[in-house]
Amino acid sequence: MFSQSRAIFQYFLIITLSLLCITTASAHFKLNLNVRILHVEHLADGLNVYMRLPMPYLVAHLLGEVNEDGLPSPA
């Protein structure tokens, strides 16, 4: 009798501790975070620049024509 209640308690304890350790997923950059990483590679014939930025930073200026409702069409 006690072994069954102990097993149930351990089961719920494991589930509770597992749920406390789970963090939320973040798939998008936060707007208040400036993620701009630049790597510059010096070559004999020039430079290679590798950039890591959020995609909206690169295409924010590329807007289509403004529609009659005031919103731009997709670029």
Task: Give a quick summary of the entry.
The protein is α+β, with helices and mostly antiparallel strands and 75 residues long. It has 2 helices and 2 strands.
Radius of gyration: 26 Å
- Our count of helices gives 2
Reading the helices and strands in chain order gives: HEEH
Going across the biggest sheet, name each strand in turn. 1-2
Broad shape: elongated
Share of β-strand residues? 15-25%
Strand-pairing-aware structural class: alpha+beta
Description:
The chain is an alpha+beta fold. It contains 2 helices and 2 strands; from the N terminus they run αββα. The protein has helices at 2-21, 55-59, and strands spanning 37-43, 46-52. It has a domain at 34-75. The longest helix is centred in the first third of the chain and has 20 residues, at 2-21. The mean pLDDT is 81. The chain starts with a helix and ends in a 16-residue tail after the last helix. 33% of the residues lie in helices and 19% in strands. It has a two-stranded antiparallel sheet with strand order 1-2.
Can you lay out the helices and strands and say which pair or pack?
Elements: H1 2-21, E1 37-43, E2 46-52, H2 55-59
